[in-house]
Amino acid sequence: MKDKDVLPSPKSRFLKVSCTECSSNQIIFGCASTVVKCRACGKQLTIPRGGKAKIITKIDEVLT
Ligand SMILES: [Zn+2]
Predict the structure, then answer these.
(1) Fold adopted by 14-63
(2) What pTM was estimated for this model as a whole?
(3) How many whole angstroms from 25 Cα to the centroid of ligand 1?
């Protein structure tokens, strides 16, 4: 089990994350330019930051 909460600078890759609210897993794009929300509970998972997404939920895995 990995304990990374935040990656320093996610590149163009997909991330498997789990929601800190409801533990639902979902795949998100690492440089999403829009707000990504949990599909189960609607909690915000990313903050768009000029081409990069700041991930504000738990990252389980980086899919390369
Ligand atoms: Zn959720």
Answers:
(1) N-terminal domain of TfIIb (2.20.25)
(2) 0.73
(3) 8
